[in-house]
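Appendix B, record 7
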Amino acid sequence: MGSALKRVLLTDTIAPAGEDALRREVEVVKAPDSDVATLRKWAHDVDGVLTRSKLPDDLFEAAPRVRGVVVHGTGTDLVPVAAATARGVMVANLPGVNAQSAAEYCAMAMLMLSRKIVSITSTLRSRTWDEARVLGGGARELAGMTLGIVGVGEIGGRLAKIARNGFGMKVLGHQRRLDRLPAEASPSPLRELIQSSDFVVLACPLTPQTRYLMNRETLALMKPAAWLINVGRGPVVQEEALIEALKGKRIAGAMLDVYEHYRLEPGHPLFSLDNVILTPHLAAVTQESRARAGVAAADEMLRILRGDRPRNLVNPEVLNENR
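Structure tokens (predicted):
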């Protein structure tokens, strides 16, 4: 890697094993928070950025030394990839490394929503035992219900197995190539999947085709007793339309881990709704997934800084640009 010690910015903490692997070959600096202004400042004099947070679109203007970015997961929409390519910056991600944890999150979401866990727990704490027990009368079994998965990749495929083989659910799947679905998911056109499903799980990447995939029209196709779960990317859902549907009780509820804008600011309308469960982009975060991802991300970063091609290069055209 040359005589000068390279510097790598961590926008978020990673597993100790991954950080140790980096420190053996580079200097590690840690951003105190993931605010865009903070990231611009701290990336100014580093050679690589390892991120689990949204990077500012103008990062590479503020950080001319950066030669590589590694996403601590799969979400390449966290990185301004076109700008990286234009600057000759390699971008790598870790497809599948967090899939088991994210699939388990979706299973948890279905159980929490169908068993009304949040409202029952809240009522038990704030009101009476009997009032909390009454809410349990509306709980549902997952067995026999229909799960519709939009984007049956690593996460969706594992969830399909859990739902079909573990819970005895009917599983529908939709993606660009319906002929590549796992055996546990029956292929379905999108409209039919939305209309038929008791749970609609979004596990698809953000593309021009999937942006606002769930909008006023498609949300209106959902059963009034159905739930929406999003562990894919926030802008797959038109948030304003979802808030209207939740406020109007036109769907039963939702559990969201990602949002149209990366952070939920204080006072966001979603906070006032009693039929939505919100988590701060941690569906794929467990001790086990962080351990795997930390080591894999460190390995990818070191490969880039040595001048080697990373195993999962997102923008291979950057190699042609550098020739």
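Remarks on this record: The longest strand covers residues 146-150. The domain at 99-278 is CATH 3.40.50.720 (Rossmann fold).
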